[in-house]
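Ligand: adenosine-5'-diphosphate. Inputs:
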Amino acid sequence: MALVVQKFGGTSVADPQKILVAAQKAVARHQAGDQVVVVVSAMGHQTDVLVDLARQITDRPSAREMDMLLSTGEQVSVALFAMAIQSLGVEAVSLTGAQIGIRTDSTHTKARIKSISTDNVRNFLDDGRIVIAAGFQGIDQHGNITTLGRGGSDTTAVALAAVLGADLCEIYTDVDGIYTTDPRMLPEARRLPSISYDEMLELASLGAGVMHPRSIEFAKKFGVKVLVRSSFKNVPGTMILSAAEATPRAVSGVALAKDEALITLEGVPDQPGSSHALFSPLASSGIAVDMIVQNVGHHGLADISFTVPADDLAQALEVTQGVAAKLKARGVFHDASMAKMSVVGVGMASAEGVAGKMFSALSREKINVRMITTSEIKISVLIARTDGPAAVGAAHRAFGLEAESAALGTDSSSLPLRPSSPLEVVQRLEGMEDLAVEDCQLDSSQALVTFIDLPDTPGVAADVFEEVGKAGLFVDMIVQSHPREGRAELSFTVPARDRDRAIEAAGRIAKARGARVADVPHVSKLSITGVGIRSHAGVADRLFAPLTEAGINIDLVSTSEVRLNVIVAAEHGERSLAALRRAFGLA
Ligand code: ADP
Ligand code: ASP
Ligand code: MG
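Predicted complex:
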């Protein structure tokens, strides 16, 4: 007998007929002898309707009352779902988040789960009933109803699967699986038979709306097997599982975050502490920043740029302006019309020329790249919002993602039902959704190449990496600053053993473009690995603070959901490692 959690999204329970169809799926599992927990979203667009109702009353509804209001959507759908199952002759019981015992913190409208008690659910299951759980909601320590943030029913489902030790968590939705990119935006997108937790975490948090990113944090931390499949068609779906079980590809998918804003703090002292002075108050305001880029600095002054979701712009600007005044910075620039396009793949780190290929594809479409950051499994570029769809199409074609061969792999239906193993770090967490830092590593085998005053013309990154590729240089981390006065800075790391070759090639490249090359120092790369690194506000700052204290300057930073990388001068490597291990409580 297996235990299966099935989640039905809004479109899957949009009307009574659809609820009956969904209920039949749960009943079929139950009749096959399995225990079944169903997690349900609000019907159709009910949550939007409720948000709109509140707006008609006031522009600034209290977050607590918002949660009280929004949680009613799921209360309606669970009751109807339980009735539907009962009408099919099987016993069922509906439960709210509070009745299950889903304990969260008190951050209304985006609460994080602290713990879930399983007694109630288990008793009902052992009694032979199907349990219908309200998605997206919980209760804080004072008994207030909380919600997990839009799209949060996925997270309820995977979290329940985690605590119950479910064999499988099925996510029923309106697409038949995870695609190489949003099929609504690009019809050539293809379904992937399987995808790894890390790739799905990145894609989801970089804009693929198909799964709530926090649900994949749970899946990875607790080793929950997740199958995303269609509510309406009986087709295979996509299995989300550990990297060892998924098919590795250089590029698995493309995501677009359509509403990004760029903020640049201009002309700050280029010394340890400037980043900390900025990112510490941003973290305290609960703003999760991405794409952090600091340029080398002219005449002792540097620019620090970062991106935030456009919704957080006003608050982030206010904080940044305060910091600018304190640091006597030259000014604060912002642009709210940006989008972030990312390509993701676990095989990227060992594949050559992925970045170059992507920049060339964008260049052919005359798309100007405003900022670049990379980590081991993704490359993100900041572009004008209006270029978003064209950029996705160009990247998708460049990696041949529309072709069958790119999407081949084990089909999910042939995989055994069995959870993967949970991460060791999970036992040390106080709350289920706490940031999970696993390790901090030092790699001192790289050298850093920096171009200064590179002309900001479409295609310049493509040009540079084409020549870098021809010179046989294997590039690891890439960061391009936001251009100012038509000039940008572009930095990347190469193996230190190739330093001479890199200096020679960089000199040639710079000369042809009227740019300069800075010294090419040996550097140390420090990587903090774990789960939820970007989505937990303030992780980057937990890295800046101890390095500032130790008087160590940071050359480059890159963030992803599973990794935070920093580049510092080689001589600071060991000291940085020790400081970071202490800061993150790693022995
Ligand atoms: P539900 O209401 O079931 O939770 P969502 O609307 O939240 O469904 O998610 C499904 C939608 O996600 C799809 O209709 C699709 O347009 C969108 N989507 C975005 N990126 C992807 C992707 N990479 N693969 C599949 N669907 C995607
Ligand atoms: N009903 C909630 C929303 O629309 C939660 C969910 O559907 O996952 O955001
Ligand atoms: Mg959803």
